[in-house]
Amino acid sequence: MARIPPIPSDQMTAEQRRVHNRMIAGPRGYVAGPFTVLLQSPEVADRVQELGEFLRFHISLAPHLKELAILMVARQWSCQYEWYAHEPHARKAGLNPALIEDIRLGQRPRFNDGEEEAVHDLTQALVRDHAVGDAIYGRCVEYFGEESVVELITLIGYYALIAQTINAFEVDLPDGAEAPLPPLSA
Hints:
Shape: globular
CATH architecture of the largest domain: Up-down Bundle
Strand content: under 5%
CATH topology of the largest domain: AhpD-like
Structural class: mainly alpha
Number of domains: 2
Distance between the termini: 27 Å
Largest sheet: none
Helix content: 55-70%
Radius of gyration: 17 Å
Number of helices: 9
């Protein structure tokens, strides 16, 4: 059970309602998951959703590469809701189902695409080792350019924030949904 339940619309402050309506009117189109918690602080919710909207819908990385990074963050944080929400987006974006399954199980995928491997390696280095070595960084710059690498690293940090919020506040999966991630082995 979530530590902070969603705020019923008739109990929202004017500022909470403004931010709520802004999220519904934007490309996301709904308010769910971590945003139900973040609405407790409408200023935080507004700023977080604005950054998330930009990162998810407007950066230069291909959709399947963004979703790859998001799934890797979800797996590293064992964030059930984030995985649940983004696995369908990853499939729709064309990410290989075998690659998705390997990440879900905490295994290194076999790559046929250098860009995917570069995103995987950079994301893994950042979320697991908390640093990115020169070789991985250089490979990403070669593939994507510096601006896109800045966007990618910001995307990874953003989704770590989202995963931490979901996990800390124990945000529930939708009714009837099963937890998609098995425990990671040590």
